[in-house]
């Protein structure tokens, strides 16, 4: 059984930074592509970023490109999302997710339905 637990959310002022971490328990962490999504109230879950199994490839949504950085540590079974220059519109619940998906990078890796396991989410609130 794979379990994902996010941490690091909180309240931050606009322009500030937060670092989210997702700890993954269960076997074969390095076999999963890992992604980050977010969901604001009344909105659909939005793809943010994905990192390949080795960590050698990353892909970002345009909305966070240049501000957010995804990384993973396969020795520690963790994936992180460094968020800089935060804006009020970044306010949402942030989720990490694990996927068995194998496709032609990065096509398909931004699709919610391709992810097999999800964390419970962590709230990020950015005040203006």
Shape: globular
Please summarize the sheet with the most strands. 7 strands, mixed
> Structural class per helix/strand content?
mainly beta
Q: Give the fraction of residues assigned to helices.
A: under 10%
What is the subunit organization of this protein? Answer: single chain
The chain-level mean pLDDT equals 96
Figure out the total of helices: 0
Q: Segments where pLDDT lies below 50 for 5+ residues?
A: none
Order of helices and strands: EEEEEEEEEEE
Give an overview of the whole structure:
The strands form two sheets. Strands 2, 4, 5, 6, 9, 10 and 11 form a seven-stranded mixed sheet that branches. It is built from no helices and eleven strands. Helix content is 0%, strand content 48%. It is mostly beta strands and 128 residues long. It has strands at residues 3-7, 10-13, 18-25, 33-39, 46-51, 58-60, 68-73, 78-83, 92-99, 117-118, 122-127. It is globular, with a radius of gyration of 14 Å.
Per-chain topology:
Elements: E1 3-7, E2 10-13, E3 18-25, E4 33-39, E5 46-51, E6 58-60, E7 68-73, E8 78-83, E9 92-99, E10 117-118, E11 122-127
Parallel strand pairs: 2-11
Antiparallel strand pairs: 1-3, 3-8, 4-5, 4-9, 5-6, 7-8, 9-10, 9-11
